[in-house]
Amino acid sequence: MNAAPNVHEERVSPEYRVILWLAALGFFMQALDATIVNTALPAIAYSLHVDPMQTHDVVIAYVLTVAALIPVSGWLADRFGIKTVYLLAIVIFTLASLGCALAQTYNQLIVGRVFQGIGGAFLLPVARLALLRILPRNQFLAAMGFIGIPGLIGPMIGPTLGGFMVEYASWHWIFLINVPIGILGLIFTCTHMPNARLEHLPPFDYLGFILLVICMVALTLGLEGFSQGTWSIWQVFGVLSLGIVTGVIYVWHAIRDSRAIFRPELFRNVRFKVGIIGNAVTRLGSASMPFILPLTLQLALGFSPFQAGLMMIPLVFGSIVIKRFATQAISRYGYYRILSINTVLVGVGIMSFAALHLHPNVYTQSIHFFLFGCVNSMQFTAMNTVTLKDLNTAQAANGNSLLSMVMNSCMSMGVALVGVLLHYFEKIGIHHAPLWSFQWTYLVLGLMTVLASLVFRRLKYLKPTYPGQL
């Protein structure tokens, strides 16, 4: 009898609908761009005269830039105003998309992707902050549920749309499509977005930010330099060491400075610590799948770009379907059982793609992709909720930013790791077919993910908790 008023209270009032759609537009642009490029990589490589097996820079440049700028996005929005920063983000993202489409060389494209990442890094965090600052608190949950829909639609249509454009137009259109969307966003941001800001803002931790950026970039570039085969082992070791050393210095800095971006007190929460470490290790393997699968389908199995894009739909559909049951499963069996078993299933699922060529037809391949999408989505849902569930109100925003940074940085390092593995197996298997390199890469990535299940064993000794307490 009391449910109806609550439902009514959760609806977003008409005066906030345009802001809601603006936030959803930013979320859609970011989610679409993160996936639409994957099926176009071989076509981009042939057009710009580079090895298709070495095109992971296109993905890394974007994802790594997003990861590096996440810590500063909220502070800039509070300092200069949500409207100002959101407007600037759309302008940078739109112009960078145009620059990517006009790129005449591979290096020009990489520069364009970096600027796309600068714009994309602010789209989602600032959109979420706008809803939090502007909407009444009792409408925030409904608003977040609404803008989450584009986040699901973008990855579903991105690979297929990218493949369609490559096959029936040219790869340039995967970037040009952002231009009219960006112009629409600019118009409505100028006319409807209030410039909410905070007057008394604490100083930003510039030193900590610089240390984190150097750490992430050095670790990714070290792997990237190794995969390209152009760096000596000492250069690779030196850059990786720089990343590790700056990471250690940041920890020392965070312990001493109360203004640090991410305080070490977060890691006193055992579930948060296990969740962050588990996310980092697991995503090195699983988060690179949207990158390597379209390459496998096109370069090793002879699929067209459009066909490869269509094959990604069952994977994303499986991710969406399982979300409906994820909370129920976690509530019934607990985080320890779900993460211990499901992490192994994700690892085995990754290894199973080594046998992708053995399917008798596309229908069984689609079922294969769908099932992997289910276990992969269950993994992300369980890892993310166990990471954040026990944080108090004061820690929630900080913990969520750190989780987002870890997710994106590990995705960039995972893609770089795929490049390392493909380069290595291509080199030692020079007389084998291209599929051979992909098969061994899947086996290594899968084994790494299976071993990541050991991280979640620490949850066995904690008091059981349930999603109702989130």
From TrEMBL:
<feature type="transmembrane region" description="Helical">
    <location>
        <begin position="58"/>
        <end position="77"/>
    </location>
</feature>
<dbReference type="InterPro" id="IPR036259">
    <property type="entry name" value="MFS_trans_sf"/>
</dbReference>
<dbReference type="Pfam" id="PF07690">
    <property type="entry name" value="MFS_1"/>
</dbReference>
<keyword id="KW-1003">Cell membrane</keyword>
<dbReference type="InterPro" id="IPR020846">
    <property type="entry name" value="MFS_dom"/>
</dbReference>
<feature type="transmembrane region" description="Helical">
    <location>
        <begin position="170"/>
        <end position="191"/>
    </location>
</feature>
<feature type="transmembrane region" description="Helical">
    <location>
        <begin position="110"/>
        <end position="131"/>
    </location>
</feature>
<keyword id="KW-0812">Transmembrane</keyword>
<keyword id="KW-0813">Transport</keyword>
<keyword id="KW-1133">Transmembrane helix</keyword>
<dbReference type="GO" id="GO:0005886">
    <property type="term" value="C:plasma membrane"/>
</dbReference>
<feature type="transmembrane region" description="Helical">
    <location>
        <begin position="437"/>
        <end position="456"/>
    </location>
</feature>
<protein>
    <submittedName>
        <fullName>EmrB/QacA subfamily drug resistance transporter</fullName>
    </submittedName>
</protein>
<feature type="transmembrane region" description="Helical">
    <location>
        <begin position="362"/>
        <end position="382"/>
    </location>
</feature>
<feature type="domain" description="Major facilitator superfamily (MFS) profile">
    <location>
        <begin position="19"/>
        <end position="464"/>
    </location>
</feature>
<feature type="transmembrane region" description="Helical">
    <location>
        <begin position="84"/>
        <end position="104"/>
    </location>
</feature>
<dbReference type="InterPro" id="IPR004638">
    <property type="entry name" value="EmrB-like"/>
</dbReference>
<feature type="transmembrane region" description="Helical">
    <location>
        <begin position="274"/>
        <end position="293"/>
    </location>
</feature>
<dbReference type="GO" id="GO:0022857">
    <property type="term" value="F:transmembrane transporter activity"/>
</dbReference>
<feature type="transmembrane region" description="Helical">
    <location>
        <begin position="402"/>
        <end position="425"/>
    </location>
</feature>
<feature type="transmembrane region" description="Helical">
    <location>
        <begin position="334"/>
        <end position="356"/>
    </location>
</feature>
<feature type="transmembrane region" description="Helical">
    <location>
        <begin position="233"/>
        <end position="253"/>
    </location>
</feature>
<keyword id="KW-0472">Membrane</keyword>
<feature type="transmembrane region" description="Helical">
    <location>
        <begin position="299"/>
        <end position="322"/>
    </location>
</feature>
<feature type="transmembrane region" description="Helical">
    <location>
        <begin position="18"/>
        <end position="46"/>
    </location>
</feature>
<feature type="transmembrane region" description="Helical">
    <location>
        <begin position="140"/>
        <end position="158"/>
    </location>
</feature>
<dbReference type="InterPro" id="IPR011701">
    <property type="entry name" value="MFS"/>
</dbReference>
<feature type="transmembrane region" description="Helical">
    <location>
        <begin position="203"/>
        <end position="221"/>
    </location>
</feature>
